[in-house]
Specification:
Blueprint (H helix, E strand, L loop, with lengths): L1 E5 L4 H13 L4 E6 L19 E5 L5 H5 L5 E4 L6 H6 L2 H20 L3 E7 L22 H20 L2 E7 L1 E3 L8 H10 L4 E4 L5 E6 H14 L5 E4 L4 E3 H15 L11 E4 L14 H7 L7 H14 L1 H8 L3 H13 L2
Parallel strand pairs: 1-2, 1-4, 2-3, 4-5, 5-6, 6-10, 7-9, 8-12
Antiparallel strand pairs: 9-11
The structure holds nicotinamide-adenine-dinucleotide (NAD) and thymidine-5'-diphospho-beta-D-xylose (TDX).
Thymidine-5'-diphospho-beta-D-xylose (TDX) binds next to helix 6 and strand 8.
């Protein structure tokens, strides 16, 4: 199998490449990535020398690049992925997430290949009680979520109209190694290690449903090999936490790991202006993939959080390179904005 993985230099894509090459050592992986601000070839250190791994720097919107690559299946991770950035400027989200997916679908239409589209629970919007299943209506609330919902709809239309072989996965919030520091969990760990304030949006009571990244990767691989054409599969771990509860837990873990009294971190928690259109709660029902395909999450929340804290503490060089670059300018500007009443 020749697998084209798009966005494989990002957080989940890089974890997926590591997973695929460990369980299918006979596969050839081609990683097509534009290397935007969140793409980092350092995420694939150790893999880059494998004879069955090829990196191509390119844009999923560029048809010529795709025409030059041979593959049997596409797993599409490539996306603009950060909600806050989509609020500042939605254009790159529409370009990559919608037009890029369309370009990949056109390619899939011309070739007899499988297309697995990695989507998100955010397409369902926010839910007060119970959880989203695959038949829940799509009610995206951020420009990011709207662009992902649009791409999901395009995938559906290509299955119905052009009879391509495509499947969609919708996963909840991921965490684990190699996550870009703009996302909540790495941000809290890194800010704590640097004794910097931790911005808590609004009242801190927004709820997210957290899954360890390798559980998501295993779910994607299960769907790729055993999923039914045209179907949608939710992937989640039933680990709902209010943000403030999660932040406090992370601070306890970090303090314990560096032998500091956790009270030293108490003053870092800083309630700031809320995110516009901030979804109150996400919760995902993954009984379909569990019952039909036999997948289930394997990493408990406590184990996953401990592994993640350990990884960031042991891989300072990885994140120090990022926070000493242009990311910090984005972060500081955003943080200053959030302090304004
Ligand atoms: P990320 O931002 O860490 O990585 C995105 C990758 O895509 C980067 O390597 C980037 O360089 C690449 N990319 C961006 N635009 C591109 C383009 N036009 N052409 C080629 N490559 C391009 O994101 P992530 O968190 O790893 O998310 C990966 C996918 O999973 C996304 O589609 C996202 O919507 C989805 N998802 C993420 C989460 C989560 O919690 N992070 C949850 C559910 C679904
Ligand atoms: O500094 C912060 N303070 C804060 O309170 C940041 C960065 C976030 N938050 C809050 C906002 C959310 O309620 O924490 C929660 C998680 O925020 P993010 O890490 O930005 O994730 P979220 O907006 O929930 O979206 C994520 O999950 C679904 C991913 O970024 C998406 O790519 C994925 O589709």
């Amino acid at each position: 199998m020749r697998l084209l993985i798009t966005g494989g230099a990002g957080f989940i894509g890089a974890n997926y490449i590591r997973y695929v090459l460990s369980v299918h050592p006979d596969y050839h992986v081609i990683n097509l990535d534009k290397l935007t601000y969140s793409g980092n070839l350092g995420n694939l250190k150790g893999i880059d020398g494998y004879p069955n791994y090829t990196f191509v720097r390119g844009d999923i919107c560029d048809r010529n690049v795709l025409d030059g690559i041979k593959f049997d299946a596409i797993v599409n991770f490539a996306a603009e992925s950060h909600v806050d950035r989509s609020i500042l400027d939605a254009s790159p989200f529409l370009q990559t997430n919608i037009m890029g997916t369309h370009n990949l679908l056109e390619t899939a239409k011309q070739r007899d290949c499988i297309f697995l589209h990695v989507s998100t629970d955010e397409v369902y919007g926010t839910i007060e009680k119970e959880s989203f299943n695959e038949n829940s209506p799509l009610r995206p609330n951020s420009p990011y979520a709207a662009s992902k919902a649009a791409s999901d709809m395009l995938v559906r239309s290509y299955v119905e109209t052009h009879k391509i072989k495509a499947i969609i996965t919708r996963c909840s919030n991921n965490y684990g190694p190699y996550q870009f520091p703009e996302k909540l969990i790495p941000l809290v760990i890194i800010n704590a290690l640097n004794m910097k304030p931790i911005p808590v949006y609004g009242d801190g009571m927004n709820v997210r449903d957290w899954i360890y990244v390798t559980d998501h990767c295993k779910g994607i691989d299960t769907v790729l090999h055993n999923g039914k054409n045209g179907e949608v599969y939710n992937i989640g771990s039933r680990n709902e936490r209010a943000n403030i509860e999660l932040i406090k837990l992370l601070l306890v873990k970090v303090a314990g790991r560096i032998n500091l009294n956790e009270n030293e971190f108490a003053g870092l928690i800083n309630f700031v202006r809320d995110r516009k259109g901030h979804d109150r709660r996400y919760a995902i029902d993954s009984s379909k993939i569990e019952q039909q395909l036999g997948w289930k999450p394997e990493i408990s929340f406590d184990e996953g959080i401990s592994k993640t804290v350990d990884w960031y503490i042991s891989n300072k060089q990885w994140w120090q390179r990022i926070i000493s670059g242009e990311y910090m300018q984005y972060y500081n500007t955003q943080y200053a904005e959030r302090l304004k009443k």
